[in-house]
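Hey, I was hoping to borrow your eyes for a little while. No rush at all, and the record is pasted right below:
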Amino acid sequence: MTGTRTTTRRTTTVDPRLALRARELLGRAEAMAAHADDSPEPTEQLRALYLAALRAAGAALVVGEKSTARPRRGPVSAWARLPRALPELTTWATYFAGLSRLRADIELGVVRDVDPRSVQATRTRLADFLEDVRAQVVAFEHGTRVTAGHRSATRTELSAG
């Protein structure tokens, strides 16, 4: 699933505060992903992986959304905003949005068991998502934008496994 990475020049100046904020969020996401296995419970591992993905989405939104272009109304979910800000991350947004209800049910205590294979699949997908977000942050820092991800998932790949 290796693709080519294409970048294009931006016409705007890079705001170092936004780059720093994106790096902070990405660092948090990576730390959360690394500590997901601290819990022996698959439900808590999945919850931690989902929250790590949410932080990574935040990093992507920092570099992908124009602060002046954020709508005052409309979707506030990171997963709903991500495809508008960075269309190349749409498949990831769709995948992780599909886990939102499960994560909420875990937090409510409604779901007590999660298949460990689902946790592993989420862990693998999160690693790929983090790679794509990292590429977006680095490109932003260099005044470019990644328009085709190196690890961008396809719907077929996400539905398999």
